[in-house]
Amino acid sequence: MLGPPGAGKGTQAERVARERGVPHVSTGNMFREAVQAGTALGKAAKAVMESGGLVSDDIVIGIVRERLARPDAATGFVLDGFPRTVAQAEALDESLDDAEPLVVVDIEVPAEAIVKRLDARRVCGACGAIAAPGGTVCVKCGGPLVLRKDDEAEVVRERLRVYDRDTLPLVEFYRRRATYRAVDGDQPPDGVARDIAAAIASVLGVQQ
Fold first, then answer.
1. Is 180 helix (H, G, I), strand (E, B) or coil?
2. What DSSP line would sit under 39-52, residue for residue?
3. Start-to-end C-alpha separation, the chain
4. DSSP 8-state assignment for residue 99
5. In this structure, are residues 113 and 184 in contact, taking their beta carbons and an 8 Å threshold?
6. Where are the beta strands (DSSP E) in 27-168?
7. Residues with a known catalytic role
8. Distance of CA 12 to the CA centre of its chain
9. Are 8 and 185 in contact (CB under 8 A)?
10. How many angstroms separate the CA atoms of 62 and 197, rounded?
């Protein structure tokens, strides 16, 4: 699942994973868990994440390879937040079994729509869950809702600059593949989900 920060990758990836009965592998969640736990990796990643930068390829690749080697990923998985660079994509290609296609879905959303969207987004300060619009407390644990540091407008614009510099070449890397599909992410979540389902079905050659 590709797309700029705030495009809805996490929400849509979780939905696809649930519907297909495979794990949702989110590098963002992995790093946030490490930050909350105060691990060495978490401390190293925290400053980079809060400034809008990207954690180094070697650390990310190692974490993802370990995750995809677990038994629950043997029949498939949905990647969210990885790969983000061409080097990561090449490492992923080396790790995959050629028996199944790598379906690449790119969620496209204009930059200013993302800035507005993330400035309004709130997450739970206790468990990290993303809140529904208009909420006042977390529906999962009752914790307080906060604006994440990396969702502040200035940081979001820096994240988008980093995306343009480091991740747009990745889109070009995948665009020429027959398994690449782009969908309109600037619409209600259910509409995005329908387009993603259609995109995946078209790659796999199955009827919805």
1. strand
2. -HHHHHHHHHHHTT
3. 19
4. T
5. no
6. 78-80, 104-108, 123-124, 145-146
7. 9, 84, 121, 148, 159
8. 9
9. yes
10. 30
Cα–Cα dist 124/141, whole Å:
8
Per residue, the 3-state secondary structure of 151-179, as one string, reads: HCHHHHHHHHHHHHHHHHHHHHHHHCCCC
Which residue type does 83 have? P
Question: Under DSSP, is residue 60 helix (H, G, I), strand (E, B) or coil?
Answer: helix
Peptide bond into 188 cis (omega under 30): no
- Tell me the CA distances in angstroms from 90 to 54, 85, 170, 183, one per residue in order: 17, 9, 10, 23
184: β partners = 108
- What the chain holds in terms of domains, given with CATH numbers, is 9-204 (3.40.50.300)
CA 176 to CA 170: how far, in whole Å? Answer: 11
Residue type at position 68: L
pTM of the model as a whole: 0.77
Pair 78, 25: CB distance under 8 Å: yes
Residue 40 burial (CB count, 10 A): 8
Cα 4–Cα 32–Cα 26 angle in degrees, nearest 5: 50
Nearest to 81 by CA among 137, 13, 147: 13
Identify the pLDDT of residue 120: 83
Separation of alpha carbons 87 and 188, rounded Å: 33
pLDDT in tens, 8-67: 998 999 999 999 999 999 887 777 777 777 877 677 777 777 777 767 887 788 778 878
